[in-house]
Amino acid sequence: MASRIPHSSSYPQAVDQVHRALTSEQYWRDRIAEVGGEGASLGHVTVGKGTVDVEMTQSVPAAHLPAIVTKIRPGDLIITRTETWGPLDGTSAEGTFTARVDGVPATLSGTMSLAADGAGTALTLDGKVEVKLPLIGGKIESVIADQVTELLDNENEFTARWLNEHV
User: Fold this and answer.
1) Which end of the chain, N or C, is less surrounded by CB atoms within 10 Å?
2) What integer is the mean pLDDT of 127-137?
3) What pLDDT does 71 receive?
């Protein structure tokens, strides 16, 4: 059984400005440097005409993990994430994300959308996390969902600051 991860944020900038930021290589380099955590890195950032495909690696230190997680996977969790954004179609754009955790049968995936919201922009994420472990998978899903929500909050705070400084 998968656990859902709904998340949303809003920005005062117009949707085309937010989309332009999310599809720029500099935004991704700045984001991973500021909120990626220790040892975070970009695998690639491929920018097309109004599109982007990003792969990044991040880790969650073992000290920040509950015992239920460290029992099945000792040490830091290494997470490889992808994020893609399609072109702006009028006043909206669609994206996807995935994440996999090394050494744990866990996957995260979902969709994202940008849409005009008055003069600003709404970013909506609909994700799910699934851990394929009998009996304890649901508990670990809950931990991962909480960690992902905290990370998304940090990334959205960064994005708001980045937009204010660069747009």
Assistant:
1) N
2) 90
3) 82
